[in-house]
Amino acid sequence: MTEAEMAARGSEVVTRDEFALYDYLRSMSFFTFMMSVCVMIIGKCGLRSTWIKKSKMAKRIFRKGKISCAVIFFLGLFAAYYGHEIHQIK
């Protein structure tokens, strides 16, 4: 491709680094969105545990909250990995 063709295209061409950055940011935003959904699930579990007076049901709700905390932890690990990968792009 000649310089004249490159100048004619302008900013239409996306470099590999720009595409990788876009892809990492998109993935990272998905993981952080899922983390916020898990935080809302934990809040709903806490709210339900105050409403329900049965101990068997409360144990089930607390177990769901623990699972949500574990999911948040693993999503945080994925987001941290993508954050480190973003720093590697030059």
Total domain modules = 1
* Broad shape: rod-shaped
Compressed to H and E, one letter per element, the order equals HHH
| Secondary structure tally: strands | 0
Q: Specify the biggest β-sheet.
A: none
| Proportion of helical residues | over 70%
| Distance from first to last alpha carbon | 24 Å
Unreliable parts: none
- Average per-residue pLDDT, rounded, comes to 84
Q: If helices are DSSP runs of H or I spanning 4 or more residues, what is the number of helices? A: 3
Radius of gyration: 22 Å
Strand proportion, as a percent range, falls in under 5%
> Helix/strand/pairing class, anyone?
mainly alpha
Written description of the protein model:
This protein has 90 residues and is mainly α. It has one domain. The chain has helices spanning 3-9, 16-51, 55-88. Helix 2 (16-51) packs antiparallel against helix 3. The radius of gyration is 22 Å and the shape is rod-shaped. The model has no long low-confidence stretch (mean pLDDT 84).
Give the helix/strand layout:
Layout: H1 3-9, H2 16-51, H3 55-88
Helix pairs in contact: 2-3
List keywords for this structure.
about 90 residues; mainly alpha; about 0% strand; rod-shaped
In a nutshell, what does this entry contain?
This protein is an all-alpha fold and 90 residues long. It has helices at residues 3-9, 16-51, 55-88.
